[in-house]
## 1
Amino acid sequence: MTEWINGIAKLTLPTPFAVGDVNAYLLDEKRLTLVDCGPKTEETWNALTSQLLKLNVKPNDIEQIVLTHHHPDHVGALDYFPDSLPVYGHPLSERWLLRTDSFIKEHDQFYQKQFVEFGIPESYYQQVSQLRKSLRYSCHRGLTNTVQEGSNIPGLEDWQIIETPGHAQSHISLFRKKDGVLIAGDHVLAHISPNPLLEPPLVGETERPKPLVQYNQSLKKLSNYPIQKVYTGHGEEVYDLPNLIEKRLKRQHERAMTVKEFITAQPLSVFEICQRLFPTVYQKELSLTISETVGQIDYLLNIGEIKRIEEGKMVLYTAI
């Protein structure tokens, strides 16, 4: 049921992705604001407009859109809105929204190099271009305004921006101190741990980000805020965030220790570790499973439990 709760209406929208429905949020503030908008499909747009109608709102009534991050299931339907509508998001979203030829080239070259370093067999190299297939559900327009932690969004004076990188480099969350409400995008999910996804190096940098290490830091960062209720990007709300954070961090550490056990007996490549972690799905979901595997490797390197062994262009990992 679509309804207002303390000035927030949750809109649940269908997606073509395995994750299922995505949540967008309408904020009844000085400026009527939509946070995220779903993927670019007619089914999503019809669901969005029909749920808005139940709130006596038309798409043209929306005065601005805020994006929690750049993933297609959160931004694609932007293309259905007028070009004049203000759109706010983190500056790191921009290259994913505009997708210039130079960025696509950098994207593919990054993954081609990583595939070699990860020890992925040549038979999988054709999947590099397929890593972008979900972007067909994204939008083809950029931000009108960029925001970062400490920025203010017009009409949302009660909301502060918290940068929460990990799941995406561009990820932000919105916090309303007066009642402890957090709109968390995909940074906090009730039933699953978000996959911190690999991304190419940021502009001007040569090293890729380490998304799982970032994600853990961003989770811990939320402990500094008096959060009472979390509106999530998928699924239900979260009411006991400290407990969830503790559970997520504990589970992730245990998973990393499992990876360490794999490489105690013999050095392994990222691909070989991925095969052991995800024996039934790594071929079908190579991008997601490799991202998860690399995340655990980054974590173990960060806490000094393992080390790298370079074998030509490929890298192996072994326990210390």
## 2
Amino acid sequence: MGRKFTVQGTNQSFACRNCGFEVPALQNGSVRNHCPKCLYSLHVDIQPGDRANPCKGQMEPVGVEHNAKKGWIILHKCLKCNEISRNKAALDDPVPDDYDLIIRLTQDKEPLL
């Protein structure tokens, strides 16, 4: 069974607060929550897709993990409250996450942008 999101209609396009890229909605029915160009996100969810978190801080990509079932998981750290979150990379979308940046996250800890 697919992942369930608490709020319908949250898979919308948005402008990345970090780099300004106009991020399109995901085409696979999931909810895009980070920029495919710089991998930054916003701290907007408590549960996936609910957009109920009052923090709204920028989330910096700080690492990646590989999951045998889910693939690459991007680790984000909130620059406002320091919370860590995990988000599945979108590599099979028509506008995929930058694979080179994902690989860099496996190799070093320097800022991406």
